[in-house]
Amino acid sequence: MSTTGRVYAEYSQPLWKRLLMTREAAVIALTLAVIAYSLVNVQNFDGPLTLKFLLQDIAPILLIALPMTLIIVTGEIDLSVASIVGLSSVVLGVLHQGGMPVPLAGLVALVVGAVCGMLNGFLIAYVGLPSLAVTIGTLALFRGVAVGLLGTTAVTEFTERWTDLATGTIGETSIPLVMIPFALLAVAFSLLLHFSTFGRGVYDIGLNSEAAHFTGVDVARTKFVLLTLSGVVSAFAGIYFTLRFGSARGDNATGLELQVIAAVLLGGVSIFGGRGRLHGVLSGVVLIGVIASALRLEGVTVNVTNIIIGLLLIASVVSGGLLAWLSRRLPRQASRASTDPGSTSTRPAARAGV
Hints:
The chain crosses the membrane at residues 20-41, 53-72, 79-98, 104-125, 132-155, 175-195, 224-243, 255-273, 278-295, 307-326. Pfam families: BPD_transp_2. The protein is built from 14 helices and no strands. By secondary structure, it is mostly helical. α3 (48-73) runs parallel beside α8, α4 (81-97) runs antiparallel to α5 (102-126) and α8 (179-194) crosses α9 (197-207). The two termini are 37 Å apart.
């Protein structure tokens, strides 16, 4: 009797294949290739200001992509993140204009973001409404409240100390200070998703929420927590966005949710849930940022940049579906060939001398 235990198909492969033959590894390799090409062929791409502005541009996307990754892994989606960015920006601006210090106004903005996320979480997790419909509705709701509070005006009188902090760098380097809170959040979300029972529950929900429920995962609470975290992180991104540009407006970050979702999907997260890793998502964000920065330095218009990024996203989604189809198709064909009565593998051996 064989003592060899069963193993999952993925773990039956050599370690190098499990590390390198993945979508995440492909995105990282493509990102490095694009960076290398840009350094050699794009004028001024290797300048210190390029790195600073690149990281500042993608910082809000990097921040929001952290909770968005976990949400999409569960099979849900949050389209209201950019509206929460705009609403938190307006709250910060209105309160500061009324005399409240920036730290206290920022704290209130974070609470507002948490409330927005809790509203999404309650409707999706406990009421059972589809996340796509709910967050489309709250997208319009939060944006409408933001524009209603401030109208078409903008608050621009922020304390120079705080705007300098949002645009400052770490020492003499070109790395913006916002990368410090991002790094802390990235570590926290990585531990949460990849090294905790909560994270295993997130994957279980994405694969089969009903089965996850029967194995002891609190599906509703998990979704509620993730959507609340999404609201808080989006509000923090809104505070950074406001202080970086020194302007609080109701239409700040319009369309940002599409860039976040594009980066998450490009980074290897399945839109159907159950699959994805944070390092792939972060590489996807950097890839989009590098492409946009390089094309901007080459004088390419924003519309062309969006077309290129859109085609890249479609290619990544199609390639993932195609590879999954091939992985299912090839074993079936091999199985049919091995059981075919006419095949040499199943034909009785001829007797010697006949």
